[in-house]
Structure formats: C-alpha cells, structure tokens
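User: structure tokens for this one?
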Amino acid sequence: MSKSTSAPRITVLGIGNLLWADEGFGVRCVEALQQRYEFADNVTLIDGGTLGLYLIQHVQQADYLLIFDAVDYNLAPGTLKFVADDEVPRFLGVKKLSLHQTGFQEVLILAQLTGHYPQRVLLMGCQPERMDDYGGSLRPCVKAALEQVIDAAVDVLADWGGEPRPRTSALPDDEAVTLQHLELQRYENERPTEQDACRVGDERILARRN
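Assistant:
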C-alpha cells in the first residue's frame, strides 16, 4: 500500500465505550471535534468504539494517526498525557483499563508487522475517574479535560495539514460519527436516573451475608 506524496492522510480515532462513564472519553473527543470544526478532505474522523482488530484498515491507511482514549497513567483523574510514535503500542500494553485497549494494541503491532504503519502517531490520553458506572457519563474533571484536549488536537491537526476551521453550519445528522441518540447532551438529558436504571445496585443483593 503506497503512501500519499501530497497531502498526508490523517485519521482521528476515538476509542472506548460511551456507556461506561469515563471509558467514553475518546469517542466523546472525536464527537466534539466534529461538532465544532470542519477539516480538509484528507482528514477522516472515526468513532472506533471497542472494535479492536476491525480498526486495522484505518490504521494501515493513515499517514498520520491521532488517537483519543481513557488511559490509566496512575495520575490524578482528569490529567492529560500525550504519547507519540513508537511509544504508543508499547505504552498501551503496560496497564490496560479494558479489553478494547488489548485489541487496539494488537492493531498497532499488526500494522507495524505488515509494514503499513503511520509515519506519525499521537495518543492523547486522559486519566479516568470512574469506569464502572454503566449508563454513566463523563465525570466533571474528565469533561473539563475534554475541552483542553480539543484545543490541543486542533493545534496538532493544523500542524499536520488538516486545515481545521470552526464549523459555520450545523453538522448533518447523517454525517455524525456517533449515533444521534448517544450524542453527549441527549444521552445525559434522556438517560434514566441511577435509581430508575438500577445503576447503583439492589441493596438486597449487594448486602454482605453474615
């Protein structure tokens, strides 16, 4: 597979699970970036979810790859840390938060082995606060980090030749990277309460037996 000799093919990939609180950080970043900015034709934004090895073609086809994810850096919740190039696959294998990181680490290693690995890779990771809250959303400190990482990502994409510019018209629903009913504001406004959804558990089950 030959690489482009003109404008680099830029892939922006958010990985994670929206339904597990801060686990959705990466996907929420791509969602926010697409809602706020438009880009040159050589930029592709992808909700990678937890697809694992199914993402291999997107990695192999990219000249430059920007990844958003919730990463356990053993730092304070909401802390951002960026890791670049060959360090990314090795770093994801050190302390995994969830199965999707195992799968994506394998994607990066497989891309290296096949000789179709991006020229530049940047992981923009955020230390999560809570990931065991099914049906939950981003915690305040992680949501604040999202705002910071979007600004940083725009600078990187501009440097890479992605030509980011503020969106001047609403994003068409059929072009959104995430499903309409899972869009952040709608998700937070329409989801049931913790009690109604039994997200906090049933005391009769959770009580420790004597």
